[in-house]
Amino acid sequence: MGNFLGELGTNSMKRYPDMFNNRKKKQQFLAEIERHQEILHSLCRAFFQGEQDREDARQEILYQLWKSYPQFRGEAKFSTWMYKVALNTLQKLGRKKQGKYETDFKEGKEIWDNRFDQPAWENTQLIAFILQSLSPEDKSLVILKWEGYSYKEIGEILGVSSNVIGTRLHRIKKHIQKHMAYV
Amino acid sequence: MSNLPLSDQWQAFKEQSLEEGMEGKDLASYLEKGIRQYRKAYLQRLYSQLGMYLFMVLLVGGC
After folding, report:
1. What is the pTM of this model?
2. For the segment B17-27, what is each residue's pLDDT rounded down to a tens digit?
3. Which of A91, A66, A73 is nearest to A144 (CA)?
4. How high is the ipTM of this complex?
């Protein structure tokens, strides 16, 4: 019975930290997020094609960031911490929608093939297609690489050994080159 | 197709995403919606645990 009461009290509060809403803290949090909001929008767009999925992802990421905000002590840059929480959330959401991701990839490939004769693609269309063809884990890895993070930092952000980062990035590079060969 | 390096193309993608994102809902409303959903889930869990607790109290009291 003691454990049961413990579960009802302390642990439940840990799972729900927003019971006592702190307005000032929330405003401070939102101001910080607003300064880095391109991270939030670009990651949601990189992971999901549909607007509804992107909205759900924005909502979930913001909640997860708010939940872990008390643990942010400024040891890393705010943007690095934001990437960490957002990418972990997106990978979980991406795995849940794995079936959907495969369908999206198929649709993306069809769109790509139909536009094959087009002389020029806008930069963002090409990068969107490349991202669409990658798994949630590979997508996270390559985005952090494009953001200029070192292997060690990528390993820390994604919680994987930095030794495997190089190998995985090499594999992703080959995959991208294969797709670029169509252009 | 552009010959820009992919990291530069990613920066262009980010800028475009920001423009698109700014047209949508504001950040505070996303956060509030998320908090409301988790609050609802928390209260449902809490009520179910309380119900279980009351049931056990009644069961032990009845014996």
Report:
1. 0.77
2. 998 888 878 89
3. A91
4. 0.74
